[in-house]
Amino acid sequence: MTDSPPILPGATLGVFGGGQLGRMFVHAAQRMGYRVHVYSAHHGSPAGRVADQEHVGRLGDLRSVASFALSVDVATLEFENVPTESIKVAERHTPVRPGSHVLHTTQHRVREKRFLAAAGVPVGPFEPVDSAEMLHAAVEKIGLPAVLKTAQMGYDGKGQRVLQPGADLDAAWEAIGPGDCILEAFVDFSREVSMLVARAPSGELVLYGPIENDHAHHILDVSVLPAPDTSPETAERAAKIATAVAERLDAIGLICVEMFQRPDGSLLVNEIAPRPHNSGHLTIEGCRTSQFEQQVRAVCGLPLGSPESLRPAAMANLLGDQWFASDGSAREPDWIAALHTGAHVHLYGKESARAGRKMGHLTLLSDTPEHARAAVRAARSRI
Hints:
The chain has 383 residues and is an alpha+beta fold.
């Protein structure tokens, strides 16, 4: 915890990463009276298009990173795959929240799992793997089915392979390795849930969730808040786990703790995202304070806002597939039909659509979580 003075509106905030999370952060920060500079890998990024200034450079270019850090009063992340060394350089010139110590842990799945286990947070069995021989030994300990993942850089199902009994382990290693990997026991879970945690420099902390998440082809498809049929005991357990993770990490800003809920109601942490999360987009319309405004408040040391859920809400991702007809020809989605359903349309300003690429999302509020989920799916089907 720190007693550093708050960074007030009128200051300049920095964001490492130019994607849609940065874009929505920029919108929230500018509405509160801040200027925002974005560090992007290329010109015209979704966040860069709406920022006050877009700084273009390689994330590993330490001189460029230092120049960017000198231009802002505080910086944050919308993308976790920034080299830790770059954030350490930035921290010499401005606060970065969450900091390099958080990235060091969350960027590497083995370090992350070891951190969670040491913190007393429930995780499934895992073993580090960096060779075919270690994979064979890990399978002997954990058994199959299991999931082999790269230790770094994987997302949306990339860099991982499910190993069933009888799998050719050498072929699996050739496909995923070489390099640091992790073998995780396959978890029998009933659903996936996430908790968003905002934490200020003072130690003040607020939580959103649990949020229920449905996936399709390893990509988040629909999220619902509140998670339907969640007992008070499960919600309390999820909140305690997320709080422990944020406090033990000493994370300032916004993080997401993703969990598996097993059939008996117990929870296992899957991973930590040190940034806003796709599952939290529904907070823009669904909560008194959105995850992006909360990120601004936490990073700047302002009082945190209320995470109160105003009405049950559901979010449906819009992937690039929606921009193509069944015969593969390009088409423009029917936004008028979507708006007629009462859905809120969010588009990310990306130049081109492709299958599996996140282009936007729909949010719909309703009287119950179940109805919100059905309604947002129906709205998406109409476009």
